[in-house]
Write a structure and sequence with these properties.
GO molecular function: peptidyl-tRNA hydrolase activity; tRNA binding
Binding site for tRNA: 14, 64, 66, 112
Keywords: Cytoplasm, Hydrolase, RNA-binding, tRNA-binding
Number of helices: 6
Distance between the termini: 32 Å
CATH topology: Rossmann fold
Site (Stabilizes the basic form of H active site to accept a proton): 91
Subcellular location: Cytoplasm
Length: 190
C-alpha cells in the first residue's frame, strides 16, 4: 500500500494559492484516474483505490497546513503504513516554479506543514515531493506570498509542473521511490 498526501489549506479561499500546490497535484491524480475522495476521516479527505495491483491512497488533510501531521499520522497508524510508504507533496520557496525535487528524508526547511508531520511522526524518513513556488520578486511577507495566488503569466508553468509532479507520483505507484527520485531529480535539474 502507498499513500500520496498533498498538503494545503481547506476552503475555497485558499483553493488556488501557492501553499495549496499539494492539493492541486492530488486533484490532477484524481482527474487522471477518475477517482474521488470519498472518505472523510482522520481530519482529512481521502480515497483508497487499486492501481496495477497496488492499494493507493490519496489524502488531503483538512487540518490547515500547520497541523497536517494530525491528519497524516492517525491515518498511517490506522492502516499500519510505514514512513517509506508515504509521499508528502508540498510547496517549496527555495525551488523556482517549474522545478520539483524528490527526497526520502530530511528536515522541515522552515515549512510548518512538514514540521507538523515530523513532530507527529517522530521521524524524518518519509518521502517528499518538493514543488517549487520560488520567492517573491517584491518585498512581502512569506505568509502573504504563500497564501497569494499565482499570476496568470505563471499558469502555463504551474500547470506543466502539476503534470510533472503527478507523472512522478504515477510512476511511484509502480516503481520504488529511489528509481522515481533518480529520474525526476535528474530531469528537473536540466
Amino acid at each position: 500500500m502507498k499513500c500520496i498526501v498533498g498538503l494545503g489549506n481547506p476552503g475555497f479561499k485558499y483553493r488556488k494559492t501557492r501553499h495549496n500546490v499539494g492539493f492541486m497535484v492530488i486533484d490532477e491524480l484524481l482527474h487522471r484516474h477518475n477517482w474521488k475522495l470519498t472518505k472523510n476521516k482522520f481530519n482529512g479527505l481521502f480515497c483508497m483505490e487499486t492501481y496495477q495491483n497496488e492499494k493507493i491512497m490519496l489524502l488531503k488533510p483538512q487540518t490547515f497546513m500547520n497541523l497536517s501531521g494530525e491528519s497524516i499520522v492517525p491515518l498511517m497508524d490506522f492502516y499500519q503504513l510505514q514512513p517509506d510508504q508515504v509521499t508528502v507533496i508540498f510547496d517549496d520557496l527555495d525551488l523556482p516554479l517549474g522545478k520539483i525535487r524528490l527526497r526520502q528524508k530530511g528536515g522541515h526547511g522552515g515549512h510548518n506543514g512538514i514540521r507538523s508531520v515530523i513532530d507527529q511522526l517522530g521521524a524524518k524518513n518519509f518521502n517528499r515531493l518538493r514543488f517549487g513556488i520560488g520567492r517573491p520578486d517584491t518585498p512581502m511577507s512569506v505568509v502573504d506570498y504563500v497564501l497569494g495566488k499565482f499570476p496568470k503569466s505563471q499558469h502555463p508553468t504551474l500547470n506543466e509542473t502539476i503534470a510533472k509532479a503527478a507523472d512522478a507520483m504515477d510512476e511511484w505507484m509502480e516503481s520504488p521511490f529511489q528509481v522515481v527520485m533518480n529520474e525526476y531529480n535528474q530531469s528537473s535539474a536540466e
